[in-house]
Design brief:
By secondary structure, this protein is an alpha+beta fold. It folds into two domains: about 170 residues, Aminopeptidase; about 200 residues, Cysteine proteinases (Cathepsin B, Chain A, Alpha-Beta Complex). It has eleven helices and 17 strands.
Amino acid sequence: MLTIVPASASASASASASASAPAPPDGPALIRPATAADIPALLAIEQLSFQGDRISPRNFRYLLTRARALTLLDMRQGEVRGYIMLLFRASPSLARVYSIATHPRYKGQGVAAALLLTAEQAVLARGYATMQLEIRCDNQASLGLFQSRGYRIFGQYPGFYEDGMDAQRLEKTLTEHLRPELTRAPYYRQTLGFTCGASCLMMAMKTCDPALELNRTLELQIWREATTIFMTAGHGGCGPHGLALAAQRRGFPCAIYVNGHQVLFQESVRSQEKRDVIQLVQEDFVRQALALGLPSHYRCAGVDELQNCCAAGGIALVLISTYRLTRERAPHWVIITGCDEHYFYIHDPDNSASRSGDERIHMAIQKKDFERMARYGRQGTKAAVLVYPRGADTQSL
């Protein structure tokens, strides 16, 4: 439950000055969660603040009672001075500012800035790490407020509003002050839909060797070395043993973690011939890894192993299901770039156009959520490859 907090009138420049004279400060202001009893006051602010795209009484009631929404009110002596409404997505770590408005009498008194600050604290308290919103392209006052609070424009929605006005898309990562040093891990976006594993290994190797050049030729070379040949309806993805062998050939020590001896990705194809090929490829990879003495653990790489890898200067490649990110069920490789008490930070090489670039870089995922993401398929396959700098003794790690 959100604690009632004082609303600072000097939180930062909030919105543009209104034609109405600002009301003088009169007693302390508080911010609290809204209830259905506040709907009349919220509707009054809607009418005064927006010419169109207003929230209806029915929608207010629904949003105030749904599990994944939160509305905060700025109150002074029983009067609602403004509100902010947040929506919490099912995908990890992402919250959305659905609406924010200040009563015209209180423009210029820091109401919107205080609401936004409290909203960010509430979002972090719920375990979410990123906030996004849309702002009308002609609303320079709101744009100035959010940019002054560290939000950046990352896209645009043409004709987003009722009157045809375009919307700017803004985003802020709230965990930057919590993060460890993450700049050591470079980012490489996969150029093909099936090269996530190769792209992750490239990022891991360059972290360990900054002189390494990342390019599409290397991406395809590694994919050819590590691919399972077939997967779903298209080209094969990379398996953990194949990726580990590719790393070892380039002088990077690594360790393999797989929760069993099942054939990875075999269930994703229907053709028995293709299933047989996938099995032959994996068996060959396993034999090669055994011959080279690569550390292979037939159990999960848990939180401790992943944290220890980060502490030793390594990078963990982890197989996840994309369902919690995109609502599509597909195997996908990401790397862990760092961790702290609450979060793993990941680079996602995904090259789809549906997500912003910053959504893929140092994404903060709560550890409990990441553990749920780091499995794939009906068998709950879990796989990871821990890659270390040249010369590291993986037997002692």
